[in-house]
Amino acid sequence: MGRLRGVQGRTWAALGIVAVAFVLPIPGLWVYQGPPMEEGFMLAFPQRILAGELPHVDFLHLYGPGSLYVLAGVYKVFGSTLGVERTVGIVQHALLVFGMFSLARPWGRRAATTSALTALVITITPLGLSAMAWNGALGLAVVGLALIQPVLSCESTTRVVLSQDRTSLGAAGVCFGVALLYRPDMVVAVGLVAGVAWLMVGRDPGARPARRAGLIGLAAPLALYLPFIAMVGPGNAFEGMFLQPVFDLRDGRTLPVPPSWAEPDGYLQKAGGLRVSDWPLPMPGIGPQIAMWFWLVPISILFVAVVAWRALKRRPTDARTRILAVAAAFDLGLISQALQRPDTAHLSWVTCISFALVPLAIAELWRDRPALGPGRVGEWIGSAGVRPLAAFSPIAAILLVIIPFYPLRTYADLVGQTFGRNVFGSPIERGDRVFYYGDESPARAAQAVVDELARRSKPGEKLIVAPFDLSKTPYSDAFFYYLFPELEPGTRYIEMDPGIADAEGSGLAEELRSNDWLIQSDVWSGWDEPNTSTEAGDLEPNRIVAADYCEVLDAGVFKLSKIGPCPIPGGPGPGQ
């Protein structure tokens, strides 16, 4: 009994280490700039759902409905605020990090701790606490992988053994099903997991109850697609979840594969590189780091997959081998995320899994070797206590020396901000609603626009937020919609994407004609990526703004205008 308590105590201590590392950057991230468009639409979209609107019909949305309706439900109960949205983001990160700890636990506490910390450092830095759909889907899927473990650990497929684990496999199916509600493009990864796990559970009749539980668990949340498609229409659903993200958006968002060596290709990575904080070790330039990071994606994924396949041939019924094989299958199914747009966010979304699995794969390679080499040093490294840390050393070297700028340096920067060092975030406020912008000068300009619009606008009027040049729509400051919930978005393009909002016949011109207020941003006018996002699209929106809108306030990087003729000098202003 005393030994059991000791083991449990050490496990709780390991979890405590992960929890402390998880909590340390959160106060810094709480007041940190979120991505203005991505976090903005995760605040605005659920507000529109609560107002009775539908994704793919009333506003552009490129993913599944799961995350939006979950957030809408949370906002309905707790209020539509940045704090509530970021709390959901924290939960999503926690699912990933502690799910990874549970997944790696069969390799020991040290291995589980290092894998969880790897996932944490990589995934929490690109988009902060934003409750993005991919983060939620990834966290749910990793929890699903962890829940599969009891069934994979059964060396027998008898009815008695498997009947004890039906609940676990059913819960895993639910997690995977909800993940697909969040991000339908995760279907390849989930499909590979289902196929590999199905083969491992076996064909024995005793395996049927467990397989049935898993299938029911998976099908239950996926069945929610049926009423959703019925509401929005099959054509709108197909266009919004498949045609637009896969075809319409691709030319304007794709980046070179492999990435350029000289400098980052992604505009947001170029902007992020301007914020420099101390790093004690020499490191390559940002461009080379991203390029090397890209190549480490297939290397790490294939390494884990090959090790798992070889180990499975030697030990087909071994629990750890089976778990690694299923995790490797999931990891392999994620590689398209890195290939479609190799920027730091997409690379993080894949390597938070593959890098966390590499130490487990190395441990499997060493499994049949009593020592790593001749002499005391090899025996010491090969000892049970040191071996997990030695298996982690290649990933530690990668994060410390090869690609430190975005994962580890940014994590350290965020922890420093928790303690008041080099704080990066200026509030833009309206009542109890707040959004944080990184630079103080644009934040002041945005605040001036917010104050002026709050003074002049009336509930029920329409608002459009767009770039200065509406023939190019690479990005938008969608957070303004969140700050003005009483105003109706005057466009379906709350999220603005190149090749969609600025395309001929997109409807943006007609929306501008029936709109009331227009906020234009110059922040993203310098957008420069090696894709079609720099090419001008429909020029009609610019002509409408020039002819039909009156400038109310020019705050520099932000400008507020109202539709209608400008007032006579000395007369009442617009809206008065």
- Binned, the helix content reads 55-70%
Described by strand count, sense and barrel closure, the largest sheet is: 5 strands, mixed
The tally of structural domains comes to: 2
Task: List how many beta strands DSSP finds.
Answer: 7
Using only CA atoms, what is the Rg?
A: 25 Å
Q: Which outline best applies?
A: globular
**What is the structural class?**
alpha/beta
Widest sheet: strand order? 4-3-5-7-6
Ends apart, CA distance between termini:
78 Å
Note the beta-strand portion.
5-15%
Number of helical stretches of at least 4 residues: 26
Describe this structure in words.
The protein has 576 residues and is α/β, with parallel strands linked by helices. It folds into two domains: 2-416, no CATH class; 427-563, no CATH class. The protein has 26 helices and seven strands. The chain has helices at 2-23, 26-30, 38-50, 66-78, 82-104, 109-123, 133-152, 159-163, 166-182, 187-201, 208-222, 225-232, 234-248, 250-253, 267-272, 286-314, 319-332, 335-340, 344-365, 375-381, 387-402, 408-418, 440-456, 479-483, 508-513, 540-548; strands spanning 426-430, 433-437, 462-467, 488-489, 517-521, 549-554, 558-563. Strand 6 (549-554) and strand 7 form a beta hairpin. The longest helix has 29 residues, at 286-314. It is globular. The N and C termini lie far apart (78 Å). The relative contact order is 0.11. Residues 156-161, 376-380 and 571-576 have low confidence and may be disordered.
